[in-house]
Design brief:
The protein is mainly α. Helix 1 packs parallel to helix 8, helix 4 runs antiparallel to helix 7 and helix 6 runs antiparallel to helix 7. It is globular, with a radius of gyration of 21 Å.
């Protein structure tokens, strides 16, 4: 996601783009493969929590596809086509979709665990409501970019409030939602575990699983934020010209690496998926 409009790309500036394109391609392959694996296996498909995994995979693939196309256009010095308004809208919306996908999971876990006595919060309707709400919020948050000059529009007319609006809605608000919801959930689980410690082993196992899922979500969420924020903030406030070249290039490589890290975490921390992959690998080597 580099807004440079230079007509020439030096080898040093081309290398980060090639690394980005390669990593985004790998993320797309892993995300689609993981989604297909969950969908074709009934035991995985029937686990409601795996639908949040599918949501994160699809939003990661969508985000990667958009940035992959942008990177190819930049590598080929092709800056015509979509207007800067549509490009910025697509980038911000896809980033928001990934951020609010984690928010939807955090809210769903909060409702299902803290308010487990209410069946509606453990239903499929609540699950789909949280997923759809994340996509809707992402669209509405990015909607102003269709009409306002922004960080991909090479003009000096960008509204002063827009970078701060984006910073709040795309970064700070999701961080607050995920932190508050997961913090409340972990506190509830911790207190519940103390109450049932001496009498209910099954409850302990269930709570351990809940804690693991919450911690995994927090890990993937903040991994993406750490990798994506530097490049996003630099371009959001149009400060790439004052950032040292090496730091600017590193900030461009971090987002795809963070997405790749998230994909690997989702795949290799899912015990059933890991077992299936192990069996598949053994069959291949036996052949």
């Amino acid at each position: 996601m580099n807004g440079s409009s230079n007509s020439d790309l030096s080898p040093s500036s081309t290398l980060p783009i090639i690394v980005q394109l390669s990593t985004y391609s790998l993320v797309i392959i892993l995300a689609i493969a993981h989604t297909i694996l969950i969908l074709i296996r009934p035991t995985l498909r029937n686990n409601k929590l795996n639908w949040f995994t599918i949501n994160v995979c699809l939003t990661s693939a969508w985000f990667s596809i958009i940035l992959l196309v942008m990177g190819v256009k930049q590598l080929l010095i092709e800056f015509h086509g979509f207007s800067c308004y549509i490009q910025t809208f697509l980038i911000d919306m896809s980033a928001c979709q990934l951020m609010y996908a984690h928010c939807g999971f955090a809210i769903s876990r909060l409702l299902a665990i803290v308010y487990a006595n209410k069946p509606i919060f453990r239903s499929n309707q609540c699950l789909w409501f949280c997923i759809i709400l994340g996509w809707l919020v992402a669209f509405l948050v990015a909607f102003p970019y269709l009409f306002l000059d922004s960080f991909l529009c090479f003009t000096s007319t960008q509204p002063i409030f827009l970078p701060y609006y984006t910073l709040i809605t795309t970064l700070l608000l999701p961080i607050i939602i995920v932190t508050v919801c997961n913090g409340r959930t972990l506190l509830f689980v911790r207190n519940s575990t103390r109450r049932i410690h001496a009498t209910n082993t099954g409850g302990q196992i269930s709570h351990k699983r809940d804690v693991f899922l919450v911690k995994l979500t927090v890990g993937t969420f903040f991994s993406f934020i750490i990798g994506w924020s530097p490049s996003f903030i630099i371009q959001l406030f149009n400060k790439s010209s004052i950032v040292p070249t090496i730091l600017n290039q590193c900030s461009q490589i971090l987002p795809p690496l963070a997405l790749l890290c998230d994909m690997l975490l989702l795949i290799f921390t899912n015990q059933p998926v890991r077992t299936i992959l192990k069996q598949f690998t053994i069959k291949i080597f036996k052949c």
